[in-house]
Amino acid sequence: MTRLGAGRYLEAAEAPANTVTSTHELTTADGAKVSGVLRTVPGADVVVALMHPRQDLTHHVLVPELLARGYAVWTQGTRSVNNDISLVHEQALLDAAAGQVFLRSRSFDHVVTLGHSGGGTLFAFYHEQAGLAPENRLTATPSGRPIDLASAQMPVPDGAMFMAPHPGQGALLLRLIDPSVVDESDPMSIDPALDPFDAANGFADAPEPSSYSEDFVGRYRVAQRERVARLDALARSRVAEASEARRRFKVSGEAIDGRDALAPRILTVYRTDADLRFTDLSLSPNARPYGSLFGRRPDLTNYGLVGFARLSTPDAWLSTWSGLSSNADFVRCAPSVTVPSLFVELTGDQACFPEDASRMAEALGSVHKTRVAIEGTHFGGPIHDGAPTGASLAAVDIDAWLSEHFT
To answer: 54 and 82 in contact (C-beta within 8 Å)?
Structure first.
């Protein structure tokens, strides 16, 4: 039986025998601790930095591919690695900055970022803020929390590569969230007229392709934005509650007010694996398989525990997961990516669809930008059984591009 999550995890090749690996603990400008792994091979004068806002990329499939071609590789986590309940993207920029400062302290001639999936928007956001004069950088998160980017060292990398970048955590969720939820406290609540897994609306049992009408798709997309707007309002009300409790505590000093200020006001967001394109392959057509990033049965995984934005603080929701409030939006940030750039589209992507790839690549501000299309799925898997992995194919183009610009 095929596992629900089949296709998400790939086996990486062996690193070259002469690889030297070191681990490093870094301190960010605001005093947080983050860690990274530096792998080098003899003669490497270009280092490729991989990072993702939520995931540990230590064993990313591109690591051995890049090492084998003579590049050093830096893989780094944020302060929220593998636990994004409190992930604030503006803080993640400080984490990325610590890594870039560290790499500039080494003997490399060039530092190039590589953002895969959600790492793409994180690095686009970093390039945008790093390229600004310190006094022009963001001073607050979408929830109003102060953020001091101005006093942080934020070196601008020499180049930027993006592999299967999705439009941003929030922009992605805006197309994934199930708008048929009518009660945010009830995971089974449903508006049948918006149910993406109801035959009356065009759904067919897996793995048969569904066929949604243009009218249903239009109503569905509008309702998705409306649900995100409702969640934004809920998040902002909880931010206000916590702020008022902190104000009271400063005045009263009473423990009850302190407890209220510290009480977690977590958002539980049900059913976030429901992009219509997962089951209707005629929408935004490409070579993707039936199913979502989380498996081949979105009619089931949509109701499960694993998925985007299931639990988050109000600050994290507004900064990371709200497509209406987040600053971490690829198209918004891309014009500020002015260094040489490479955009790798995977033809079977389930998160970056053809129109997304075109819009994002065109938005990049670099005069020297290259876009290539590679056969593969979002995580770098093969387009079909027996085919080479998308990661191994992408590595060929990445090597050619790096050689052209930096060696």
So the answer is: yes
pTM, two decimals, is 0.95
Closest CA to 175 of 355, 6, 376, 314: 355
pLDDT digits 0-9 by tens, 204-240: 999 999 999 999 999 999 999 999 999 999 999 999 9
pLDDT in tens, 50-61: 999 999 999 999
**Mean pLDDT, rounded, for 262-282:** 96
* Mean of all residue pLDDT scores within the chain: 95
Is residue 10 very low, low, confident or very high in pLDDT (cuts 50, 70, 90)? low
**Residue for token digits 């590679």?**
374
Residue with tokens 């949509």: 302
Four-point Cα dihedral 346, 351, 353, 357, nearest 10: -70
CA 163/CA 389 separation, integer angstroms:
13
Show Cβ contacts of residue 39 under 8 Å, excluding neighbours closer than 6 positions.
15, 19, 20, 21, 63, 67, 72, 73, 74, 75
